[in-house]
């Protein structure tokens, strides 16, 4: 699994429903790398606040909870889990009630700094040869020096159509509206709609899932070849 050298970081950002989690996990598997889902941490913190009855819109109350937020995430793409304390919240953090408040939590700078420190520690300590980390600000804030940085995009129509195909109790219109309003709120905090300098865009609008995974793997292999890695 490991070579004992510095892990290769593959940073991937993109809007909601662009395929970051599913594609990044498949890419990690293909490369024999670890996989870090940073959005799951923001979701897990939102879940923790809900369980404790804390209003996510009151920044001071959210910040006061950080020392008590005992969070763990699996980074093996074949053993993915999210835990808060002794609770397995892998599925619970995907519920619409969590998705509905996560942007409130994510806009708090202290929360971002606190989580970013943990993301960097997880990436540095990975026992794998590399790690695919995905989110909204990995290419720009968390790992701006990563040797591979990708913006994974797809048109809003494509993203809404893909989300609507998933099993959900909500209507396609509600799913689409939730996706749009989350992107709008999140875009006020970090720019994940435009590729920063040196970031390669992979637009999956006209690609199926496997083609998208191959396109991302190609970007990684090309970057590693040109960096001699
Ligand atoms: N290229 C593609 N073609 C078809 N379906 C895709 C493609 N990429 C991803 N998908 C599907 O789109 C849906 C959304 O993908 P995923 O959950 O990985 O997105 P995400 O960017 O992580 O979303 P979010 O930010 O909301 O968590 C999933 O059902 C996934 O299987
Ligand atoms: N680097 C990141 C990752 C996520 N967020 C916030 O978390 C929410 C959930 O993320 P998903 O990838 O699971 O959809 C997202 O809507 C953002 O509010 C973030 O700010 N930065």
Task: Compute the CA-based radius of gyration.
Answer: 17 Å
Our estimate of the beta-strand percent is 5-15%
Write down the overall mean pLDDT. Answer: 94
Ligands: adenosine-5'-triphosphate, the ligand Nc1ccn([C@@H]2O[C@H](COP(=O)(O)O)[C@@H](O)[C@H]2O)c(=O)n1
CATH class label:
Alpha Beta
Order of helices and strands: EHEHHEEEHHHEHEHHEH
Shape: globular
Question: How many angstroms does the end-to-end distance come to?
Answer: 16 Å
CATH second-level architecture: 3-Layer(aba) Sandwich
Spans of 5+ residues with little confidence (pLDDT < 50)? none
**Estimated structural class:** alpha/beta
Q: Total helix count?
A: 10
CATH fold label: Rossmann fold
Largest sheet: 5 strands, parallel
Number of domains: 1
- Output the CATH homologous superfamily: P-loop containing nucleotide triphosphate hydrolases
Query: What's the count of strands?
Result: 8
Strand order of the largest sheet: 2-6-1-7-8
Overall helicity? 40-55%
InterPro entries: Cytidylate_kin, Cytidylate_kinase_dom, P-loop_NTPase
Enzyme class: transferase
Keywords: ATP-binding, Cytoplasm, Kinase, Nucleotide-binding, Transferase
Catalytic activity: dCMP + ATP = dCDP + ADP; CMP + ATP = CDP + ADP
Secondary structure blueprint with pairings:
Layout: E1 8-13, H1 20-31, E2 34-37, H2 38-51, H3 59-65, E3 71-73, E4 82-84, E5 87-88, H4 96-99, H5 102-106, H6 109-125, E6 130-135, H7 138-142, E7 148-153, H8 156-165, H9 172-187, E8 200-203, H10 209-226
Parallel strand pairs: 1-6, 1-7, 2-6, 7-8
Antiparallel strand pairs: 3-4, 4-5
Helix pairs in contact: 1-10, 8-9
Subcellular location: Cytoplasm
Family: Belongs to the cytidylate kinase family. Type 1 subfamily.
GO cellular component, one term: cytoplasm
